[in-house]
Amino acid sequence: MSRSFLVLALILCSAGAGVLTHVFRLRAAAATEFSRQAELAREDAARIRAQVVFWHKQKIDAGTNFAAELEQMGLGGNDAAGIAAAAQQAFNLRQMRAGNLLAVGRSVVGELRSVEYQIDADRMLEVLPVGAGYRAEVREIPSKTEVVTVGGQVQDSLFGAVEGAGESPELALRLAQIFGYDLDFYTDTRRGDTFRVVLEKKKYANGEPPAYGRIFAAEYLNGGRAYQAVLFHDAAGRPAYYAADGKSLQKAFLRSPLKYGAPITSHFSYSRLNPVLKFRRPHLGIDYGAPVGTPVQTIGTGRVVFAGSKGEAGNLVQIVHANGYETMYLHLSRMLVHVGEHVEIGKTIGYVGSTGLATGPHLDFRILRRGVYLNFERLGLPPTEPVAKQLWSEFIAVRDQWLPLLKQGAALQVRAQLQSSVSGGPDSSSAKPK
Predict the structure, then answer these.
(1) What is the pTM of this model?
(2) What's the fold here for domain 264-378?
(3) Distances in whole angstroms, Cα of residue 100 to Cα of each of 198, 234, 411
(4) What is the Cα–Cα distance from 308 to 432, expressed in whole angstroms?
(5) For 175, phi and psi rounded to 5 degrees?
(6) Do residues 288 and 363 make contact, with C-beta atoms less than 8 angstroms apart?
(7) Of 3.30.70.1400, 3.40.50.620, 3.10.450.350, 3.40.1360.10, which CATH number belongs to 144-251+385-421?
(8) pLDDT below 50 — which residues of the chain?
(9) What is the pLDDT of residue 43?
């Protein structure tokens, strides 16, 4: 064997050994990385089992039983009873409200992690498994309150405009309550109308939808006419809304007997062709076309003098008001008041129906004064008292503080001292806004 052949063989052997060494190193590194990844996967799985919670949520029904509700959501009878017993120690379960959320949280493998019941916008009842039992507490939901200016333009309805501005329909209801004495937001709204509101907006850290506090000022531009409202108080300290000139926005009657508005399908007339009887006779009221179950509200404070079935009128509620006024609500599917009951303005007294002589679901609304039927569409509504003279300078200060902010579209951050200086309002009736 030649010397050169031996040298070549040694070189090939050395190269092969180097390749094998490199391969073994790669395999070792791969094995180490695989072990590391496997350990990380085990750690991630452990964290997921311990930390990730899947929630099953549902709304509470009226008259529900807490333990029975938990059983319907998949908990065993003993667990549900134990959780209810612990919860009762922290919160009176008889005060649960229909529509509030109940949530059961479980791990990825089905282990119970938490039971939560939202008491209101600011409080949460939480029940946690502890050892062989359960611990319950009521905790505050972290939130941040800002004073903001929001606004929008009407394309079809006030509700649509509010939702188009990214706000909750609750704000539309609040606006309808404020301006409801001057405007019927079903019949009076026009395309191009605008609204602006300065109000408290509470934002929650847990992602719950924002809640609205006091509305300090509001403006609705209807067909070129501006309606404005400023939160103030009367001489007795009761919160109310006033126009910029100090006149009260609250009048003796609301503009509509339906909380959410509806089209008028038949007007007041002394000679109307009856759609059922097919001959002409007086129709001394106004028909509002609305689905069965639409809430009907009393347009004014008064006392119920009749609540029952009355022939062609079907289910009828009749209310006596001050200054000789009476109102009647006909064809109701259900009545929520009784004879002798005192009702406040805006109270839901029943639901739209088609009882009695009716071709379909609607509300026949009638108003009388001293026994004479009146045309509600043409009725001038008497206002209540304006700002008291001794409070005029205070009202001017409040008005000039809030009305200019209606023109600002951006969120307004308000310091703690400013918030304390404007305490009081429909949502906080014990204090007065300054």
Answers:
(1) 0.56
(2) Glucose Permease (Domain IIA) (2.70.70)
(3) 28, 35, 29
(4) 42
(5) -65, -40
(6) yes
(7) 3.10.450.350
(8) 410-434
(9) 59
